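User: Round two. Same drill as before: sequence, then structure, for each protein.

Assistant: Same drill it is. First protein:
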Amino acid sequence: MTTPSTGIAGLDQRSREIFKRLVETYLETGEPVGSRTISRYLPNTLSPASVRNVMSDLEVLGLIFSPHKSAGRMPTETGLRMFVDGFLEIGNLTTNERHNIAAQMGAIGTQGSVEDMLTQASDILSGLSHCAGVVVAPKVNLRLKHLEFVALEPTKALAVMVGEDGSVENRIIDLPPGMPSATLVEASNYLNAHIVGKTIDEAQSIVMKSIESQRSALDALTQKVVEAGLAVWSGDEDDEKTLIVRGRSNLLDDLNAVEDLERIRLLFDDLESKRELTKLLGLAENAEGVRIFIGSENKLFSLSGSSLIVSPYRNAEHQIIGAVGVIGPTRLNYGRIIPMVDYTAKVIGRILT
């Protein structure tokens, strides 16, 4: 079995040409590639039989494989990694593409919120790549407009938070047994007298100082509700990140088999889950530019066998605060998508600074 780092050096010129042509054709068509197809496109005419012999050697090396009973071959994940590292020719965005990306995001950045701009970035990447565009963003620390408690059952209540921008978030909190409904009303009134125009962190600091200094007129039960209502928003790590995904429907456009549909279903399940968001950001934090994860190399989406091209972006203090990228099948147009992701991340950084 070869590895991406040693495989290229171990291939002769003919094997390199055939391997490169096979992967390029596969990425273009998504279909297994036969020896006759390769022989027609090689600059040096080789018979299909000669090409088959080389392909057999490449299969032994673990770089390509034959799916099902097809006579054609496809690259393995190891083969794709070797191709990306050693043979990939990365293209450039046209001047018009760069202008359009910067103009669309710049317009949103000056007229809308940061989240609107990042959503636009995800939309742009989705449209250009025909895959799913994804952005991991720091959660905006909104200023509060209203907070209310709604009883659900004897020991549960819904804490409803409304931001100044009109956004609404809900959390379920636990209540002491036997708490009267009037306590929830009192807790809501108390918070709304203190939190309007404040962020969650500011509101929590003000309220807790009031309670600790015993200047609060709240009884013990009401204090517990107030504390629980603020604490439920105060800093679960996953809740500090927002995942923006656009263009999921693009992933359904090119399904060739039932197993492809199952792969996409698994990917959708992964995208719906927020538990691994910080891991996605971590994939980008260790690199200055674009990182590429192919299939099982990407632990976050490994079950769906998807590839991820991701790049970090920075704030005005040059700190990495988020990541932008494209998720799709391993048959991505890597050479075209890499510069898209790289340029989009740089545009986000320029707007934020």
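Second protein:
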Amino acid sequence: MATLEYTGTLVITSCWCGIELAIPESLHDEAHRKQKSVYCPLGHTFVYLNTTEKRLREAEDRLERERRRVQATRDLLAHEERSHAATRGHLTRAKRKAHAGVCPVPGCRRHFADLERHMGSKHPGLVLEDAQSRSGTVV
């Protein structure tokens, strides 16, 4: 009987048949990296399919998808905030026109003295919100 002297590191792994075996660490690492086949003492082949690199790539892909989703949400929020600010500005402008007795239709600048008089006498303390400063001003 021959004796083998080995100074490297052995990794204990198991085959799909259930037998445990020790293989050199370099073979184990190579099999994981390149998805190479390893044989058990009974001749069965087993392959490391879920390699470290594959798990790392999958984790990076998940992280990148999450980053894109977060950025899309931020972009949508910024768009909605700008849209809201514009709507607020249009509403303030329409309120001021009505209070001043000017027709609210775009392009029409017709003045209605009765409306202005009505707003001044029946609603003298009407507070209009300024779209830019959001501070109430009495008109």
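Residues 10-49 form one domain.

User: Perfect.
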